[in-house]
Amino acid sequence: MDPNPKRTKLLLQHQQTLTLDDHIDRISDLPDEILCHILSFLPTKYAAGTSTLSTRWKHLFPFIPKLSLDFDDSLLLHPNKDKDNNLISLATFAIFIYSVMKVVHINDLRVYNFSLKCQRNYDFMNIEVDYSGSQVASWVDLALCREVRVLTVQVDYKDEDDKGFMLFTNQFFYCSTVMWVTIAGRFFLDVPTVFFMPNLISLFLDGVKFRNGEAVQWLIRGCLFLEEFCLKYCEFEELDVLEITSTKLIRLVIMSCEWDEDYEVVLDVPNLEVLRYEADNIAYDYPVKNLSCVREAYIDIGISWGQELAYEPHYYEDIASGFVAACSNTETLYLSEDSLHAIHWSWESVKPTFCNLTTLKLGNVVYSRWLVLASLLESSPNLEVLEFTWGLTACEAFPDFVSRLTKREPQCLSSHLQKVKIEGFTWDGDELNVVEFFLKSAKVLREVEIVSDLSSEEQLNMNKKLSLVPKCSVNCEIVFASTEDGKFDL
Q1: What DSSP element (H or E) covers 14?
Q2: Which residue in 125, 283, 346, 407 has the most C-beta neighbors within 10 A?
């Protein structure tokens, strides 16, 4: 017999109430505005799928504020399906896009953000199956008709001979609403000589192909208010001159594009603040007309074997040195190992003064590059931070570096350099010599940060060794960090 029947009865009633509460759909009772706000955070697959839940949810999708359509076949094509179902899945993905865009069209909706991401697929014989160029073009055209503001198209496309490109839609060049664009994939951009995109402020192109260098200038000329422009892994059928002229451009990235060696890069960008330029070879010339406002410069250029053989010695060294010198107003400068090599013979003849430079980041410093560093320190009186982003090797040129700076101490060492950071530290004798030099020479040094994979015990032992080194700055601390925490990012 239950000693307390009244208490047992109350417990049973409470349990029944909880069970009933578990089955109450409280979310559906929320106002439409809140439900639509919640749906705006979901990928399109799930947001559109809620219309099948019940009549309460059926008509909410068209009323999502700032409608964002995110079509990602990695979400829609089930990764665990057998390969022989991929052809069916591709068709299903296409039907899903057309179905959603039909709802958008019927309800006359504006699309704020349209994102299309398509990966390469395989059929049951392990043969690559791609989306057709006409399919992709039609999807993009449907989005452009809906006053889209943000457009992202990323298609992993490859034809049989790996040479074909999908023709990107011409309607793109006459869209008056789009503001931010990312196009990544093997697209051919046939730029009209005359067009106008009045609201485009950011354009990121990855893997795109142009007919010639003039097409890039036409592109910029048609986007009068473009502030950010990126060319990454782009190709050109012909390229004699790559000219970028703009009074509005603030950030410019030219990275690992494929072009022949005999070309010129003309930069006339008086208001540019950030420049990132990477190339496997050096242009025949860099007629830089205006880089006076650049505040961050990342330069990674190297002399190819063909260039070393084709022209007189040191021709390209002069060109590379002039290009770096054109960024003399920058506050942050990164020079790769190849860039240091490219300028090391002719830098002394150029040697501008970097009056505004406060942060200098370098690739691997080896051999005669130490003398380039000595020159950079001499011409950077206000330098505060020096970073070795890919390790360093003191080698036979290091004594000359020490001797030169000892005879005539740079102003930055005596009054401004506050931090030295060394990544990829391995604790060989050369690296210790470099650390010792800056500890002994930098009078206002506050921190030496060492990024390495050493264990805590090894770091402690090295710290003991370095603590015996006499410091010119009594306030200097030695800080250790793991490699994961020490990634370089301009």
Answers
A1: helix 5-22
A2: 283
Three-class SS state of 476? coil
Instruction: Write out the two tokens for 336.
Output: 């790769």
The 8-class DSSP code of residue 99 comes to H
Q: Is the pLDDT of residue 60 over 60?
A: yes
Distance between CA atoms of residues 57 and 401, nearest Å? 72
Q: When comparing pLDDT for 77 and 19, which is higher?
A: 77
Which residue has 């076949």 as its token pair? 73
Cα gap 406→197, rounded to integer Å = 57
- C-alpha angle 393/400/475, rounded to 5°? 70
Backbone angles phi, psi at 378, to 5 degrees: -65, -35
Under DSSP, is residue 457 helix (H, G, I), strand (E, B) or coil?
helix
Cβ pair 319, 302 in contact under 8 A: no
Look at residue 480 and give its three-state secondary structure: strand
Q: Where are the alpha helices (DSSP H) in 203-360?
A: 213-222, 305-310, 315-325, 337-343, 347-350
CA pair distance 229, 122, nearest whole angstrom: 34
pLDDT digits (tens, 9 = 90+) for 4-54: 665 555 555 555 554 445 556 666 667 767 666 666 667 666 666 666 555
Give the pLDDT confidence of 152-172 residue by residue, as tens digits. Answer: 999 886 554 445 678 888 889
Residue 331: is it exposed, middle or buried by C-beta count within 10 angstroms (0-12/13-18/19+)?
middle
Number of residues written out for the chain: 490
d(Cα 201, Cα 223) in Å, to the nearest integer? 8
Q: Are the C-beta atoms of 240 and 283 separated by less than 8 Å? A: no
In this structure, which amino acid lies at residue 162? D
From 240-249, 383-392, 419-428, the region with the lowest mean pLDDT: 419-428
- Kindly compute the dihedral angle of the four CA atoms of residues 340, 345, 347, 350, in this order, to the nearest 10 degrees: -150
Q: What is the DSSP letter of 486?
A: G
Using CA atoms, how far apart are residues 422 and 73, in angstroms rounded to an integer?
Answer: 42
* Alpha helices in 337-480, H assignment, sequence order: 337-343, 347-350, 369-378, 398-407, 411-415, 429-441, 456-467
